[in-house]
Amino acid sequence: MKMKKLLLLAAFGIVGLVNARTLELKISEKQTEKSKIAFQLCGVSVTYYDGDGNVTGYDLITSDQSSLENCQMWQSLVKHRLQKAGFTLTAQ
Amino acid sequence: MKNIFILTLLIVYNFCLSQKIHVKYLHIRSEIATLYEDLYIDENKVLSRQDSLIQFKNLNSSDGNITAFRPGKSTRAFYFISTINDENKRDFFFTSAVNGNDPNDNYFLHDNVIRPVWIIDKKSTKKIAGYHCIKATANFRGSDITAYFTEDLPYSVGPFKFFGLPGLILDVRLDNKSFNIWRAEKVELDYKEKIDFTPSFKQYQRIEMKKFIDLKDKLLLKNNKEVLNSLPSGAKIQYSSNRLGIEKVFEWETK
Q: Shortest Cα distance from B204 to chain A (angstroms)?
């Protein structure tokens, strides 16, 4: 059980480093004991630039997601939508 | 003997003031864009040109941020034209764009800039492009900035819309940021290049500065709305509420 918990935490750590920022990770202590994640605020921080290289915006895009997998999928979807909207993304 | 000394001083002073000066600044416009700005001074005429050749940097994702860039079909140069005076305000004529992604969205604007209240720290000095420079700090339109100027070139001029120090600004930057930086790489005296200090920009739109800033503010809101519409349902956005450039507050807004 402890090993499983450690593996789960490590997975979150790695994703946080290589993927978009996970803002806040709230794991209810009671539910951790049951090895379940109750709630996760999933986020992507975006800086927008125009063709002249000027910053045109800073956004913090967030959504409540029930699991790490869902958070990752949601982050990928956000990136996909931004690309579809005409943006070239440097962090993917 | 005294007269000869005064005459020599006057000649040297006039020589200094009649020099033609070209300063090449490395300008870090943003975390991804670096370019050169060339400042030309001929007597009291000043023209500064931000180059259209921009070096774009690919940011890494290690800090968890995403860089969303809309590459344009072409980049453009921006001009800043002024005349040296001793007044508390200076007229700048400059080119700019509301929409940085539209190469045809060009404006030629007039801006009356109040001289920043500079605090000079004579004890803090550094050498820039071979010149002894003195530190000065100020708040420029809502942004705290630090500049280094040289008294060896007694022109109250700088890149962009910076002015008001008793010497040419060779380094100026936004405090605590890694962009909005201008740093002189080269100072050329009596340059040979032929410079037109009164370019016409006939094809550019001309509107009042206040109206131009309104258009920019509206575009920022429109962009935020567009991004929100493009996102998956349930997404929440915290927008940047402040203006994004170095000019955050304008004189007409603080009256």
A: 17
